[in-house]
Structure formats: C-alpha cells, structure tokens
Amino acid sequence: MSGIHHDNRMIFLPDFCNVRMVFIVVILAQLLSFILALGPQVPSGERWFQLSLISLFIQWVALTDCALLCLLRPYLQRASDTIVALASMMVVVVVTLVISEISFIISREFAMESLLPSSWHSEFLLRNLAISVIIAAIALRYFYVQNQLRQSIEARAQARIQALQARIRPHFLFNSMNTIASLTRTEPALAEEIVEDLADLFRVSLQTDEQEVRLSDELQLCQRYLHIEQARLDSRLQIDWSLQNGNDTIKVPALSLQPLLENAIYHGIEPRVDGGVIHIGSQVDGDRLCLSVRNPIPPPSARSTHSSHHMALQNIRDRLAVLYGDQGDLRIERDDNQFTAKLIIPIQRQESPS
Amino acid sequence: MKVLIVDDEAPARQRLQLMLEEMDGIEVIGQAANGREALNLCHTRSPETVLLDIRMPDMDGIEVAMHLQAVDNGQRRPPAVIFITAYGEHALAAFEAQAIDYLLKPIRRERLQQALARAQQLNHAQIQALHQAVEPTRGRSHLCIRHGDRLDLIAVSEIACFQADQKYVSVRHDGGESLIDEPLKELEQEFAQQFVRIHRNALVARQRLIGLIKTQDGGFAARLAGIDTPLEISRRHVAAVRKLLKQFG
Q: What structural domains and CATH numbers belong to chain B?
C-alpha cells in the first residue's frame, strides 16, 4: 500500500510519461484497431492487411498523443480541470489531423494511391477526427471520474486516520491536571517536569500530518507518559523495559505504543491496590518489528466492567490497517493473570519520499 | 467538622489535605488510600464527612458509601459523603438525578467549601440508584461485617458458600466463617452472577463447584473447592447443578 498524498489538488490526467501508462495506451489502441478492422465495410479477404494498416495509423496517433501529453504535463499541473480537458482534446485533434495528412502525403508520394485515393482526402480527415474526438472524450471522462473516486477515497482515508489519531483519554488529562495541581505546592520542580511531559504528549497527539515516527521518538514519548503516571501512582506503577538495541530508526505509527501503556495502567495497574509491573518489550523478527506490553490482570472482583479497552485496541488496529494493510497486526494474548498486547509492524525499507 | 480523605492517589490526597488545613473549622482526621482503609477509619475515627474518590482499586467509592450507609443500625449516624471524580463518569447522571453532590478534579477551593457546607448523609435509595448506574449487573465486591469495634471485610470472590441457619446466614470463605444477618433470598438476587442456589438453605459460588457425589440416602451433594464437607443439594436443584458442572467441563 502506497503512502497517502497530502496534496489533493492534482491533475486528473494519468501520467503519460509512465511506461506502464504507455503500455496501457498501446494495448487500448490495438483493441481499437481490432474493432475498426472488424467493421462490416471491410472486405473479409483484406481484413489482416487492413488491420495492419489501421494498427499502424492508430498506434502512431496514440503514441504521439502520449508523448505530447507527457511533455505538456508540467505546464498543465496547476491548470483547472477544464483547461486540462480542452488542452488534451486539442492535442488529440491536432495530432490526428497532422498524422492523417502525413499518411495522405506518404501514400501519394510513394505511389500507393490505391490505399488512400485522393478523392477520399476530406472524408478520411473527417472520419479520423470524429473517431479521435469520441475516443478522447470517453477517455477524458473516464480519467476524470476515476480521479474523483481516488480523491474521495484518499480524503476519506485521511479523515479516518485523523479521527483515529490516538486520542488521549480525557480521564488521563484530568488526572494529570489534578496531579499537577497537587504537586505545584509540595514539589514544584516535579510539577514543572510533568507540565513539560504533558505538553509533549499533547503536541504529538494533536499533530495530524505525521503518521509515522521513529521508534526512538515513540519510546521517548512513552517515557514521558510513564513519568506522569508515576507521579500519580507512585510505587504502585513499576516498569520493566526490555528493548532490543539498534531499532531506533524503524518507523512506527505515531502514538501506537503509548495507548497500549495507557490501557495497561488503566485496566491492569489502577484496579489493583498494590499496583504491579508493566513489561515493555521491542524485538525485530525478520522484517517485522514486534512491540509488546504485558500487564497483570486484576482479580475478577476488581475488574472494571466498562470496556473502553476495546475501543483503544480497535483504534490501533484500524490505524495499522490504513498504514500497512494486512502487514501490520495487533495481537492480544491473555491467560489467568497476564494480559499481553503485541504490536506487529512491518519494517519498511527506506523508499524515496513520494 | 471532622473530615476523612479517601483517594488512591497520593498527590490527590495531599492536595485535599492542604486545602482543608487552610479552612476554618475543619479537622482532617485521616487519609485512606482504598475502600478498606476508609471503612476502618470511619469505624474507628467516626468522621462527620468523607471525601470519597469514586474510582479506586478493589472497592470503588460508591461501594464504600454503600457499606457506610448500610451497617450502622441506628447506633451511630453514618458520615456525610462527598464524591470526587476526575472526569465525567457515566454514573454522574445518576448523581444529578439523586441530587448527590460531587466534585470534579482538580477540585476548586470554593466548590469544596460549598460542598462541605451542605454535605448530607446519603439514604439507601440514593446509594442503590448509584450502584445501579455504575454496576447494574454486579453486587457488592465485599461484605462488611462489624463485630463491636472490629470491622471485617470479606471479598465476595473469596466466598465459597452461604448457608442459612435459623437466624443468621453463615458465610464460609477463604479466611474462615462469619455470620451475617442478610436474608439468603436477597443475597441470591444480588450475587446471581456468581452464586447459585443448591438448597433451600444454601448458595454456592459457581466457580467453586467441582463435582457431584451420591449420598447414602440416595440424594446428591456438591463438592466445593476449599470446603471439606460436601453440601447437600435438594432434589429440585440437581439438574441445574449438573448443567453448570457440564458447562465448566
């Protein structure tokens, strides 16, 4: 799955400089030649001969159109859709007329009058022109609709990912505010640090344009988050890190690990009078990065019955799906006393920025 | 006014303590970090008002209020309760509906003063409504038993069975055996999720059922984890117990 473009204003024509696109044009041109050669007015004995002539002509026109549209593309980049459509139509009309005229001249110069008798001249031009204009109109319409569709899909994906962009639980915000209010008098230095941590956390969570960050950045953010919670929960919260070295630059979705920690604290630590240990691990396994968060499960009598749990997990799942398709995953394992969330993220080779 | 502070977070307790110390006519008689400590302190120090955090581990604030209200049979007035929460829990609608005061964290000084000035005891109906709003399907997490000046809290998850005697109900749990004077029928309703009736005079924990045995007189008895002597099952409950055992496999 390719990255999502942020620039929605884009020329609706496909890129005719692209080899793939040229190949598609060649195929379509050939199909058109077949259709014309199968026409009822062609005598059946001459079909193959006619097909080769028609193919030659149509490929010539189509490839020239391609080349010109490719050359024109930089100039049309910022133009309105109407201008782009008119310009493309002009290209097609001019190219068709010029090549038809050249074909006519060639047949006359090389004494192949039987193929294109001079009496045909105007009819030949007009017929070619009509076919070109109709095909071009259909193609433009198709490109336009397809572009609209692609744009709306991208816009939706964009909106979705922004909506999903991990929301920090309001509960956490108010608890932190309360912690700060409490510490302001008794431990002003710690209160100051927590304000800084909170600011960092919110800066990232309010940022909607950067969907992926380096693992080291995400881990640092998690540390800031845990610092805040530590001030509130004190010795009830213990953290055990086991991070594999050298994975700092791997890209992970922004705020992907932090919500798992928030979950672990909310459901695993807070409901326990004596708190507990959260184990955080990172490990590279082949071309995948696995981040895991493990927390104790409180006794059944203390379990919260409201399940905000699933929302946070589903949110992360959805973001993984948008970013990595089926390459990413969030796995949940639980036994009697431990809950483990495992985040599987494909390691992307450094691609050229789109 | 004697006030008790109950919150599981140390910084939150500290802040309340500081604020209360600056107010006239307020004496903070203690801080509790969980429901158990809170109930014990209420029992021994008799505060007039309790500032009670709603979300706490093990026993939430609403259940604490429930125990506070329930057990004092006229000898002593239960303390007034002011609830505290960090964020609009879904139960707050029930607070509004029952006209129960609550404070939002971070607490403002003037709101705290206001709340203290008009703090009231909760009545049974109010607490029931709150409990319904928070845990509609679950009963208390603990039973609270007072013996003179001692206060016992029994976690419901540690109870194996309730057996009705003539006057009392005996509770057999991991810590021993205690007597309560709540009717078996009400216990059955409250803990319908965790306990099942096996006899006119017995409720047993579903989780603890491990087997059925035949008795000498042709009846059946249930074996329970942690209890040596099997408990008699009345004929009309045998089928239901069998079904339960099958479910647990």
A: 2-134 (3.40.50.2300), 158-248 (2.40.50.1020)
DSSP class of B196: E
**How far is Cα of residue B57 from the mean position of the Cα atoms in its chain?**
13
pLDDT surpassing 80 at residue A249:
yes
Q: Exposed, middle or buried, B235 (CB in 10 Å: 0-12/13-18/19+)?
A: exposed
- β-pairing, B150-155 with B159-164? unpaired
pLDDT in tens, B35-53: 989 999 988 888 999 999 9
Locus of tokens 């691609």: A351
Asked if the C-beta of B193 comes within 8 angstroms of chain A's C-beta atoms, the answer is no
Domain range annotation of chain A: 19-163, 167-346
On whether any CB of chain A is under 8 Å from the CB of B19, the answer is no
Residue with tokens 């942020």: A6
CATH superfamily of A167-346: Histidine kinase-like ATPase, C-terminal domain (3.30.565.10)
Mean pLDDT across B19-43: 92
**Per-residue pLDDT band at A159 (split at 50, 70, 90):** low
Give the pTM: 0.66
- As a whole-number percent, the residues of chain A with pLDDT over 70 amount to 89
Determine the residue among B5, B6, B7, B8 to mutate to test chain A binding: the one whose Cβ has the most chain A Cβ atoms within 10 Å: B8
Distance between CA A1 and CA A120 in Å, rounded?
52
What's the gap between Cα A99 and its chain centre? 41
